[in-house]
Amino acid sequence: MVENYETQFVTFIESEMEQDLAHDLNHVFRVVKTAKLLSKIEGAMLEVVLPAAYLHDCFSFPKNHPNKAESSRIAADKALEFLNEIGYPNEYHDAIKHAIIAHSFSAKVQPDTLEAKVVQDADRLDALGAIGIARCIQVSTNL
After folding, report:
1. What are phi and psi of 63, to 5 degrees?
2. Helices 46-55 and 25-42, interaxial angle, to 10°?
3. Which of 29, 68, 75, 130 is deepest in the core (most CB within 10 A)?
4. Residue among 142, 108, 119 nearest 22 (CA)
């Protein structure tokens, strides 16, 4: 079921994401790929994980912005507005919102569900290794 919405998720993030090379479409696609794998291993519900993984950075203040810690809450609200527009099942909305809010390190929100943990882990794993170093350099040059 959720796979039927993936094209719409991609179209939305393509139009909404700011020009931030550290949080670009490639970052989102890597997070989604990792989240799918982790969901399969851990038994997480893709109906929550996929929308949250695709939409987790649909809004983000720059790293040095005084309201940076609010980015994930704003992204979650924006994501739910979009999910309502496309008719995504309401039964998953609260869990998706929590997963998007909890993915952020700066929000300081603990993930309370397996699905939120999967999205958070997938996002944080993208900060490791060569990709993570390149993303860190990109963010640093924009501060």
Report:
1. -55, -35
2. 160
3. 75
4. 142
60, 75 in Cβ contact below 8 A?
yes
Q: Which domains are present in the chain?
A: 2-141 (1.10.3210.50)
Among the residues of 1-143, which ranges form H helices? 6-16, 25-42, 46-55, 71-85, 93-102, 114-125, 129-141
Give the position of tokens 């720059």. 62
* pLDDT tens for each residue of 15-50: 877 655 556 788 899 999 999 999 999 999 999 999
Question: In one letter, which amino acid is 110?
Answer: Q
Q: Tokens for 28?
A: 């989102």
Q: Tokens 């909890």 label which residue?
A: 102
What Å distances lie between residue 67 and 42, 49, 64, 73, 80, CA to CA? Answer: 33, 26, 9, 11, 20
pLDDT band at 135 (very low <50, low <70, confident <90, very high): very low
